[in-house]
Amino acid sequence: MKTLIVFSLTVFSLVSFAQTETWKDHTKDIDSRVQDLLSRMTVEEKCTQMLNHSDAIPRLGIEQYNWWNEALHGVARSGKATVFPQAIGLGATFDEDLMFRIGTAVSDEARAINNDLRESGKPYIQYMGLTFWSPNVNLFRDARWGRGQETFGEDPYLTGLMGSAFIKGMQGDHPKYLKTGTCAKHYVVHSGPEGERHVFNAVADKQDMYESYLPAFKACVDAGVESIMCAYNRTNDEPCCGSEYLLQDILRDEWGFKGHILSDCWALLDFHTGHMVTDNMVESAAMALKAGVNLNCGDTYDSLFVAYQRGMVTEKEIDENLAILLRTRFRLGLFDPPSENPYTQIPLSVIRSPEHQDLAYEAALKSIVLLQNKNNVLPLRKDLGFIYMCGPLAGDQMALVGNYNGLSPDMTNFVEGIVEQTSHSTRVQYRPGTLLANTPRNEIDWYSELAREADATLVFLGYTQRLEGEEGEAMASPTKGDNFEMKLPENQLVMLRKLAEGHDKPIITVISAGSPVDLREIRELSDAIIYAWYPGEKGGKAFADIVFGNESPSGRLPISFPIDVNQLPDFSNYDMQGRTYRYADDNIMYPFGYGLGYSDFAYNELMIPDKQVQKGDSVEISFSITNIGDYDTDEVVQVYLRKTDAPQWAPNMELIRSFRLSLQQGQSRSQTFFVQPEQMELYNVKGEKVLLTGEYEVIVANRAPVKGTDHDKTSKYLITSFMVE
């Protein structure tokens, strides 16, 4: 009888256990639900959940999920979506609010796509999920890096500002659910050369790490980013995805990061094929798990169960890592009734809605940078007798998108944008004239003859993702997407030279690219230079509005343009000295923050009420600005802080604030802000924060005040100082 009673109680307990599946109860807290779900999985099942293609577990009712989705500048590689400017162009807007609104729009479209997928009963497939591997907040420290187009530029403050705004827009503000999950990548010191990314060792001292390479990631963590992607390379001898120092000491312990860590795709293979720190896939899986990688993009974690069987990892270690990853799925509401999650109600009508198309136009308009405008040849009249367009990129849709792009049924290229606005009495022609990167086999030259007839010639030069970008995408690049010489293809330059021969009518050179090019010869041959980046689906319309003066250009360079690539430090040297406006003393043609417009501004009344402050005090600063030109437009006011008599290891200056101000003709505005104590702090060679006493200069300007560029008559600078005692 005792045996029967025990048996009955056991059966009752099992039935009761099955009926109280806490992980399915959306009213319970996430930690309880995660632990309950873990308790129901076998070790082998747990291992299958830690790859980007997480398997279904039918016996538990768990559907498959693919973590790999892209949204660098719009939902990418998925269904039709709004295509915004490439990230480097978004950096050129210096507009935090715009970046937040773009993140909101992108996540709306992502949810709508996923909602439709779910309602149709289809599985969660790659690129149509809810976890997006953006933004890229690596520092664009070297102009030769082809993948720098994915970043917001060379400045840690601007990068962190834009990345954080995007994250907040993407993830939403619901107290329980994420709209989508974002990922800050590639952690850390990942910035080329692209062809060496699987083997290189980025050596960076603690001062450079904390002053330059880490701040944007820290800003993203503070903004609540859901995941961090560790990079392919080694940093200071350790593979980034196998470094307990990077992933535990800094990310988890120092910064308090609570989200999940994922590897770059197939980065764990590099442990034993590139970095040679392990002998095989099983060892690599064990090393990554122990370092704290929760999710493997690739197939190395296919060997994780084998590592467990061999005693190389424990079930406790698997549970601890998987628990963090599962939290994200719960926060996305993937295990809850759709009725509980407001984001599941976002309809398909948001995709490419008029509001989102307007936003893409606004972003393109604010991203385009005017670098040169001799004799004010721009803007052009719409009723000119003959406007001639040439160059390989004028009608190329690829010149609009950059890499990691989505697709839209309504892309407006440069030719279309111009033709739409010219008068009916204006003669308009377009001929490519040359190929993207090869000399035409038929070298009959009709294009330069047409330029001599035209009242204005627009020549469209540059790159596409065929020439610059990620190693596997840049199929026409002999250097796996990087541009070691920082030059346009020679055939494009030959074309520009022929256009300029014996020609006295305006030549406007338009460059589509995601990185700087050598502009020395182009400056001489062109009357005006427009840097369009990859401006997205409304790029052609925004460009035409600028060319014809409907709008004044207001984009600003998020990266300095060097004069001579041969004067740059070695590409594989990760020391920041000699790089970017923060550490370079010369060799800058166009500085960070540079950009012309059709209007003019007067900067006035830079004031500091209290010029003597104690350590730990903030400093109040105010200035005024007036639009004294003929256009209603935006000005991007930049605030730089410089420590007078700074130690040799300190940066020359640092951007600490920026203001995109919209001002009508004749309008003035006063602005007050505070320099906070942490903005005065510097990291010394030991990676320690120090706040030095003495004099600090505050520079309110329209571009970085770099030596050698101050002769430009369009430069605006106000300088004052305060003392820290």
Structural class call reads: alpha/beta
**CATH T-level fold name of the largest domain:** TIM Barrel
Low-confidence stretches: 1-18
CATH homologous group name of the largest domain: Glycoside hydrolase, family 3, N-terminal domain
Approximately what portion of the residues adopt beta-strand conformation?
Answer: 15-25%
Strands ordered across the widest β-sheet = 9-14-13-12-10-11
> What's the total number of strands?
26
Termini gap: 86 Å
Cα radius of gyration in angstroms: 27 Å
Mean pLDDT: 95
* Domain count: 4
- Counting DSSP H or I runs of 4 or more residues, the number of helices is 21
Supply the CATH class of the largest domain: Alpha Beta
- Fraction of residues in helix: 25-40%
Query: Can you tell me the overall shape?
Result: globular
Main pleated-sheet profile: 6 strands, mixed
CATH architecture of the largest domain: Alpha-Beta Barrel
Explain this structure to me?
There is one protein chain. The chain has 725 residues and is α/β, with parallel strands linked by helices. It folds into 4 domains: 28 residues; 322 residues, Glycoside hydrolase, family 3, N-terminal domain (TIM Barrel, Alpha-Beta Barrel), CATH 3.20.20; 237 residues, Glycoside hydrolase family 3 C-terminal domain (Rossmann fold), CATH 3.40.50.1700; 124 residues, Sandwich (Immunoglobulin-like), CATH 2.60.40.10. The protein contains 21 helices and 26 strands. The strands form 8 sheets. It has a 6-stranded mixed beta sheet with strand order 9-14-13-12-10-11. The chain has a 5-stranded mixed beta sheet with strand order 18-26-25-20-21, with no helix packed on it. Strand 10, helix 15 and strand 11 form a beta-alpha-beta unit. Helix 15 packs across helix 19. The longest helix has 24 residues. It starts with a helix and ends with a strand. The N terminus is likely disordered.
